[in-house]
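Exercise 7. Given the encoded structure of a 335-residue chain, write a plausible sequence.
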């Protein structure tokens, strides 16, 4: 049966505040739990005015306290920004607070210029080269296989995930026997090749016996196609701003936004949007089912920031009831 989850960037809206973004995240998490989503993940970003999830473990503690059954986790922690020992302590704390509910998704992209490197006091490019060793060390710290034992952290059992948007993450996930989540919602180029490589090279581990894939999609659903495109336009604007080196807070939606763009930007958005479901609940369901059939994904995680937080919750409420048959599609793919 295909599982469905939520990826949140904790977006800060134009004219809004970080406090409001955090409150919106908790309401989204509650809604995700209510409609039957399996996980609620928060992504680590730094020094970006429009994203408030930088202190990822703190945000997850906040979300965990207002939910009771949904899994909470990182999608992901960029390990080069930290030491394995720090993350063992942070996620060991979360595991103690919310036992059996914590996911620890790990990525290697430093995603930082010289200013952030100085602020973090790290050579992030060198740290990225150490990523495979740091993942192994982090797992060993929690398993008690190191000379120093983190407290909290020793004996913690978060569900480890490898994140990626290239073949590197797929290879490492396969070698370590970890579930693999692909960032197809904004970097779809290597999706099919990465999933094929991961499944072909997968080596069973104490954490996972067989390959397990999550793929990300953008989800914007409303009562009409035009309304769905309208609410999606805030994130589309954010993509354009990011690609042109002018990231900022999440802007309000614009009617007919795509048509206002040069052809090159329309093509860029169409390319990024390969893994998107925008429209009515019925059209979105068809897009999601086709994506599951293409990828054979065991899980789908939905991104998609909206200027009006209620519009994202409404997307879930409209879509989730129509996805009950996704298990039949997945079973057919695997037959």
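Solution.
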């Amino acid at each position: 049966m295909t599982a469905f989850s939520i990826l949140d960037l904790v977006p800060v809206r134009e004219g809004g505040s970080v406090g409001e973004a955090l409150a919106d995240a908790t309401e989204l998490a509650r809604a995700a739990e209510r409609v039957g989503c399996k996980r609620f993940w928060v992504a680590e970003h730094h020094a970006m005015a429009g994203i408030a999830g930088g202190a990822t473990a703190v945000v997850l503690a906040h979300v965990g306290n207002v939910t009771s059954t949904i899994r909470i986790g990182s999608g992901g922690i960029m390990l080069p920004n930290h030491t394995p020992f720090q993350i063992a302590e942070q996620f060991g704390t979360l595991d103690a607070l919310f036992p059996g509910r914590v996911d620890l998704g790990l990525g290697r992209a430093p995603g930082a210029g010289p200013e952030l490197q100085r602020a973090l006091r790290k050579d992030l490019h060198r740290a990225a080269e150490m990523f495979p060793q740091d993942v192994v060390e982090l797992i060993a710290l929690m398993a008690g296989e190191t000379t120093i034992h983190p407290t909290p952290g020793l004996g913690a059992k978060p569900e480890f995930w490898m994140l990626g948007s290239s073949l590197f993450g797929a290879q490492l996930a396969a070698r370590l026997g970890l579930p693999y989540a692909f960032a197809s919602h904004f970097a779809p180029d290597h999706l099919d090749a990465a999933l094929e490589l991961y499944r072909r090279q997968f080596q069973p581990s104490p954490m996972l016996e067989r390959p397990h894939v999550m793929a990300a999609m953008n989800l914007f659903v409303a009562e009409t196609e035009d309304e769905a495109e309208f609410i999606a336009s805030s994130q589309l604007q954010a993509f354009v701003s990011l690609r042109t080196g002018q990231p900022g807070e999440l802007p309000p939606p614009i009617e007919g936004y795509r048509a206002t763009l040069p052809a090159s930007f329309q093509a860029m958005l169409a390319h990024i949007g390969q893994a998107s479901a925008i429209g009515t609940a019925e059209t979105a369901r068809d897009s999601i089912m086709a994506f599951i059939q293409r990828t054979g994904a065991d899980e789908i995680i939905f991104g998609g920031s909206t200027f009006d937080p209620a519009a994202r919750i409404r997307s879930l409420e409209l879509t989730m009831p129509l996805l009950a048959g996704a298990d039949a599609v997945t079973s057919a793919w695997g037959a």
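Remark. The beta strands are 3-8, 39-42, 71-78, 102-107, 159-164, 180-182, 213-221, 276-279, 299-303. Students should compare their own answers with the one above.
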